[in-house]
């Protein structure tokens, strides 16, 4: 029998002991009666997003949390960002993360972010979109948030094995890098040549663009060059529906990378007011939307970004607040859901306040619902989950366990 | 932020219930207040060196304990022994473990160890070193401890797929085996032919060697043949410094195999007085050296062999003694280290006294230090570690977790 489920992915969930909290973590310190209800009635454990001690990026950690093997399907950040910017991708496309940047007359990079340009980037991007670089290869270009953009090259025989034109952070004042192939294949040579051609055309087109003329008139740095990095080739990734008996899933998120991954695996994505990827997200809005969507989807995934931000900022006080908002979200779910629906929570990686970056620590996780063999744990925290009935498993295993409890897995063998 | 760490690898750590100890293990019986301090303030768990139920050799178990996948990098015992004997190896070399042996006039193996010869083996080995077997292939030969030696063949197109000339234990009285290729490649054929040529030359040279003439005059069995086994091809293994952000590591050990592996992965190795691979090792000498080295290395690894010896000897009384010396070592570390340094302990495999050999039982393990989410366990023993916060992880995962807590891992994805 199939049941429905809501999965909360708490970005950056999991922390390390904090001296000011008497050696407790923010989650252990926070007042979380609803998360504890989940732990009490459900089964808890520790989840290594990819493997013990391996810190994951949000992209890799989210793929793992959705059941995928990142080494099979993760081919660089470019394709994920391109999907996030709303571009339609095809297998074989090579995609790049881009910055609009400012270069001087000598071609030196003056500002890698073109003064963190916000206005006019769509117009700039349009002027670089659908440029034929050869008879068989076309460039698609789209603006992202602020100075960010994405480039997709589409044509036969392309390769992601090309160098970055972006000289990298702390390299301002140096020239843009020439693109060169990173291996000896004709594909890499072709891609490097066409990418360089695109970058040269971009400089010409951007120099004379009205948006830049206006910026210069206003004393702002013009967005007169494109820097590329994170080349990745687009592969076909099986949809969740193909892997799990036609699973119909929805994703509520405010973060572009996560939304892009959601689209990639065939989730219907929901964003909008109150559903931000910032501290100011509204837990009740997210929960209410989930309660609405669960009527027509098998699985509703809610992504909450804010804990990761607090970790990066080293702000355990804010991480406690986020944990309590997460608790409110889970409380609204538990109160509003019909009997028989599973509720699960995990993270894409830990972001300890003391590290101010992602770490390889496992994240606490729980599943609650009718099919669960509950354990003796009564609190949802890093240490209590270590003693839970789920044991210590990987991110993709955790997703598989949830799918199995919900009745969406298929037998291996007969 | 990076922190420093000391890792104790206790060879043969972990045992099974012993009737005479009322079903306890030697480690559970020993008085170990310092190991318990480690468990109490830190996090414990069970480590499967390679995988649950798989007994590992010291070579494989040590590679795993240092974070490596043995199936990727372990290519037979020969290369490790050759490194242990101090030979410089190059990728593509094929190395063999050797015995000096005694054969009679008919070529039958009379003694596989040439009377456990100790004197004169360097002179014998010199006479077999740097022999050109063909225009492009040269043999290097060096003595090891007692009757042991190593052979390295260097030249283009060699293969480890050749049979042993050693007829094996319990085969004395039988002839030395002819070497033959183990697959149909020209590389295996070439290697078998040149190895056989070397073995024939060795018989000629050893027969007339002054060391052997003197042995025969004294009524001792001459070392008049070389038996080969454990062929392995030398591959390039990435250094720990390449894998973990420039990690600078030192290894304190008295055992040749472990020292060889240490050199192979780029550890600076320390041996000498008190630092033996036997029962008589001095725990305080090892700890003091570690306290000295931690001032200039990120990671200091201390290898302790004696527990493995006690297991092989089936001596639970000695294994209890070793556990208490290990405890003294850890106590000296905890007392002498500055705050902020991580201390970890694991094993390369279990050597239960009842088995008198390596078993596939997991080994107890612990990590102690500022970044650790401690658990509720207060004792360091096989059974208490089973309930610890680390859960049950592999040897290489355990090393990765330590590296992550110390700040030496890199993010997967972005």
How do you describe this structure in short?
Two copies of one chain form a homodimer. By secondary structure, chain A is an alpha/beta fold.
Which secondary structure elements does this structure contain, and how are they paired or packed?
The structure is a homodimer of 414-residue chains.
Chain A lengths: L4 E6 L15 H4 L3 H9 L1 E6 L9 H8 L4 H4 L3 H8 L9 E10 L5 E3 L9 H8 L2 E2 L5 E6 L4 E7 L31 H22 L2 H8 L7 E9 L6 H4 L5 E4 L3 H9 L3 E3 L12 H11 L5 E6 L1 H7 L3 H21 L5 E5 L16 E6 L13 H4 L5 E4 H11 L9
Parallel strand pairs in A: 1-11, 1-12, 2-14, 9-10, 9-11
Antiparallel strand pairs in A: 2-13, 3-4, 3-7, 3-8, 5-6, 6-7, 12-13
Which properties best describe this structure?
414 residues; 2 domains; 6-stranded antiparallel β-sheet; homodimer; 8-stranded mixed β-sheet; alpha/beta; 19% strand; Alkaline Phosphatase, subunit A
CATH structural fold name of the largest domain in chain A: Alkaline Phosphatase, subunit A
**Major β-sheet strand ordering of chain A:** 10-9-11-1-12-13-2-14
Number of structural domains of chain A = 2
CATH superfamily of the largest domain in chain A: Alkaline Phosphatase, subunit A
Question: What do these coordinates show?
Answer:
- The structure is a homodimer of 414-residue chains.
- Chain A has 414 residues and is α/β, with parallel strands linked by helices.
- Chain A has 2 domains: 4-73 and 238-406, Alkaline Phosphatase, subunit A (3-Layer(aba) Sandwich); 78-234, no CATH class.
- Helices cover 33% and strands 19% of the residues of chain A.
- Chain A has 15 helices and 14 strands.
- In chain A, the strands form 2 sheets. Chain A has an 8-stranded mixed beta sheet, sandwiched between helices. In chain A, strands 3, 4, 5, 6, 7 and 8 form a 6-stranded antiparallel beta sheet that branches.
- The longest helix of chain A has 22 residues, at 186-207.
- The mean pLDDT of chain A is 94.
- The A-B interface holds A 16-17, 23, 25, 46, 50-61, 70, 74, 77, 230, 352, 354-355, 357-361, 382-383, 386-387, 391-392 and B 1, 370-376, 387-394, 397-405, 407, 409-414.
- Chains A, B: Residues 4-402 form the Metalloenzyme domain.
- Chains A, B: It holds the Pfam family PhosphMutase.
């Amino acid at each position: 029998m199939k049941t429905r489920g809501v999965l909360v992915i708490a970005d950056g969930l999991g922390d390390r002991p904090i001296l000011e909290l008497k050696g407790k973590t923010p989650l252990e310190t926070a007042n979380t009666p609803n998360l504890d209800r989940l732990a009490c009635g459900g089964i808890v454990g520790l989840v290594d997003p990819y493997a013990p001690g391996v810190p994951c990026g949000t992209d890799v950690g989210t793929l793992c949390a959705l059941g995928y093997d990142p080494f099979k399907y993760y081919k660089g950040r470019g394709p994920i960002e391109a999907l996030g910017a709303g571009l339609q991708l095809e297998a074989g496309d090579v995609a790049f993360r881009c910055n609009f940047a400012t270069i001087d007359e000598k071609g030196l990079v003056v500002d890698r972010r073109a003064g963190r340009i916000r206005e006019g980037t769509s117009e700039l991007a349009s002027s670089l979109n659908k440029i034929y670089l050869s008879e068989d290869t076309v460039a698609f270009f789209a603006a992202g948030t602020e100075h960010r953009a994405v480039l997709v090259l589409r044509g036969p025989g392309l390769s992601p094995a090309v160098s970055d034109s972006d000289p990298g952070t702390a390299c301002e004042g140096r020239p843009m890098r020439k693109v060169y192939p990173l291996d000896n294949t004709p594909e890499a040579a072709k891609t490097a040549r066409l990418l360089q051609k695109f970058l040269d055309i971009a400089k010409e087109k951007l120099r004379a663009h009205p948006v830049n003329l206006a910026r210069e008139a206003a004393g702002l740095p013009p967005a007169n060059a494109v820097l590329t990095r994170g080349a990745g080739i687009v592969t076909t990734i099986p949809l969740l529906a193909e892997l799990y008996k036609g699973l119909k899933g929805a994703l509520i998120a405010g973060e572009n990378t996560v939304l892009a991954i959601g689209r990639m695996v065939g989730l219907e994505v929901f964003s909008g007011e109150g559903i931000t990827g910032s501290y100011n997200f509204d837990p009740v809005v997210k929960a209410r939307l989930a309660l609405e969507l669960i009527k027509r989807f098998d699985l509703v995934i809610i992504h909450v970004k804010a804990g990761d931000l607090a970790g990066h900022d080293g702000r355990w006080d804010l991480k406690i607040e986020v944990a309590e908002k997460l608790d409110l979200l889970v409380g609204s779910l538990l109160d509003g859901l019909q009997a028989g629906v599973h509720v699960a929570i995990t993270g894409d990686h830990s972001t300890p306040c003391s590290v101010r970056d992602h770490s390889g620590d496992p994240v606490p996780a729980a599943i609650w619902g009718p099919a669960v063999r509950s354990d003796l744990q009564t609190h949802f925290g890093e240490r209590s989950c270590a003693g839970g009935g789920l044991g210590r498993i990987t991110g993709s295993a955790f997703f598989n366990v949830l799918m199995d409890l919900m009745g969406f897995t298929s037998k291996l063998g007969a």
